[in-house]
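W.,

You were right to be curious about this one. When I first looked at the sequence I had no strong expectations either way, so I just let the prediction run and decided to look at it fresh. Below is the sequence, 385 residues in total, followed by the output.
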Amino acid sequence: MKAKQSAAAVGITLCIGLWAVVSDGAKAQQAALPQASVSAPKTAVQQFKNIQVLKDIPADELIPTMQFVATSLGVECEFCHVHDAFDKDDKKPKQTARKMIEMMLTINQENFEGHREVTCYSCHRGSTNPVAMPPVMSAEMEMSANAHAGAEGSETKIVGGPTGDELIEKYLRAAGGSAAINKVNTRVMEGTISFGDRNIPIDIYSKEPDERISFVHTPDGDSVTAFNGHEGWLAAPKRPVHEMHGPDVDAAAIDADLRFPARLKDACSRTEVRGVEKIGDHDAYFLDCERQEKTPLHLYFDEKSGLLVRLVRFGETALGQLPTQIDYTDYREIEGVNIPYRWTLARPGGRFTIQLSDVRQNVPVDDAKFVKPPAPPEEPKAPAK
């Protein structure tokens, strides 16, 4: 996220490990529109104004798709859109973006049997202007290239190593075992969330089944991220509540699962051990977990301890996938269960770290904490003239 964003805005965007929350104008437009029914989800053209290219994608995918474009080009929404008037066509980059999206879709359709092999990021790589000529090698570029080559070569294929089920079973034992994990009904965590050089207090409440709410205590008031088991929302001082949609809900459900190690095996419809990679100073097994009708999870388990040290999940958009990487460290035992006291979440738009200072389990947590706030009353419409 750019430095010009307020701490409160960054807190909302980063706290839940989601990537679909974009500019205030986009969020306000999304919140003001009617929600699609469960039986007949709306398409983008049915819910938003002036959609000319991505007409038939689900309405819930439009905002994440725009975030994918913004991240691929390294820009903010206002690069293409008029602030608070997203349907207007006043800016030339918006017209160009439509042509580029059509070109990308055509390339994939005519050359890759419709599979999404080419995306905005294939050419832009974080720049508004794709580079057409190889640059002259500099010392900095050589170091970067060598580091990249080292990262690419860090994966080691294994022969006769553990299976996916064996890795998950070892992780479950390392986390404390099913008996101890299934006794956890609530967890209350206190600590700080850090982005850049800013450290802000955070409180997190979790409760079975799959309920979680966090409060980032910014100087302007609390930024809230919540999930009640079936729907999620974001709230911030002086801003209306915004609902989660699509892959955001899946990500929130993963974060809210107090018994994730015990449920992981059932969540994976198929697993494949891809090799061994270096995570920090430790070797870790890379496990690809496919899930029914959901994007896969990439899981990295410490080769010695068996604990989960990295999780990568993917948010699906109409133009490509947006990854979110979470690195877990500082595992500590509480009531027979090993949990990370520190985790760093990174996505193309930014990163943050949460460091816990206190954790309590199986303490009372009021159900009222997870009740979604009512929507603000609609402003009366001006009389027709």
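Here's what jumped out at me. Residues 7-124 form a domain with the Photosynthetic Reaction Center, subunit C; domain 2 fold (CATH 1.10.468.10). And, maybe more interesting for your project: The longest strand covers residues 321-334.

Coffee later to discuss?

I.
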